[in-house]
Amino acid sequence: MAEVLVLVDHVDGEVKKVTTELLTAARALGEPSAVVVGAPGTAGKAKETLASYGAAKVYAAESDDVVSYHVAPKVDVLAALAEKTSPAAVLVAATPEGKEVSARLALRTGSGLLVDAVGVEGDGTVEQSIFGGGFTVKSQSTKGAPVISVRPGSVDAEQAQGAAAEESVDVPAVDAAKAAKVTGVEPVVGGDRPELTEASVVVSGGRGVGSSEQFSVVEGLADALGAAVGASRAAVDSGYYPAQFQVGQTGKTVSPQLYIALGISGAIQHRAGMQTSKTIVAVNKDPEAPIFEIADYGIVGDLFQVAPQLQEEVAKR
Ligand code: FAD
To answer: Ligand 1 — pocket residues by CB below 6 A?
Structure first.
């Protein structure tokens, strides 16, 4: 069975949820090989999780130098492995970093690039949600081993035991003059909450929240649910919440099990970032708000009454 290379997303060897989703998707295409790029010892830490989601092999590309770069070493390692293994496909998370890795890799290997897939089929066909979620299209690459970036949260991760046989691979020296170097890492606010693109539940607030102080209503419900907090662009532009939490066309794309929109009208640019959520709940005082067109459950009401009641009910369970 052909190998499918899966770039592992991790923080110091702790495997992110999206990687378990990629390994699950990869199993439809062939035999998943996890590619770990990190400091020495990273693959060892990641191995158990990778094995439990079906990784047959774990390629360990480890050096102290790679942690200084987000993109360049990953592209170099994947390009070298793609040449060596002739994989059926290469799967990368459709995160900002993953999208850059996938585009550079496709250019390097001369392969077709399929971006932001929300589903992967056994024959290499991928499903994509386009025009703000208004259409679903199916695409196939016609050249080389396709490089596929998969939207976090769009595939349900399923466990399957793999051998996770570790193989050390060389990390090509990074040409520092050509690569963007990481100069500092700072923790973000809301650091105790799950990461927005990884969370199974997201509670987002819009302009209807009214102020940065009143965003505590959104945070309260999010914390009761163990959720990440998101915001519409209007909320971000009004200074209610920091820009890194913006959901939508010019923000982050999320696909959680549950998305709760509080005081968000549901403009197409917001929908583009959350429409593929599995269940959508909207709270809005305007019964005509477009968000209700895509909501599975809609509550016409004042978010300042509804959200605390929801929080109270969740806390009881
Ligand atoms: P509004 O549209 O003002 O809606 C506020 C809602 O809150 C209303 O429906 C109102 O009825 C409701 N409300 C008010 N008070 C209450 C209350 N007490 N209880 C319950 N409901 C209440 N937007 C994004 O979100 N993300 C993007 O990435 C994005 N990118 C964009 C890119 C471009 C190029 C452009 C042109 C626009 C983009 N936008 C984006 C902006 C988008 O068009 C909308 O302006 C924005 O999504 C509106 O945000 P909102 O729903 O919070 O605000």
So the answer is: 206-208, 232-235, 246-251, 263-265, 267, 269-270, 273, 283-286, 289, 302-304
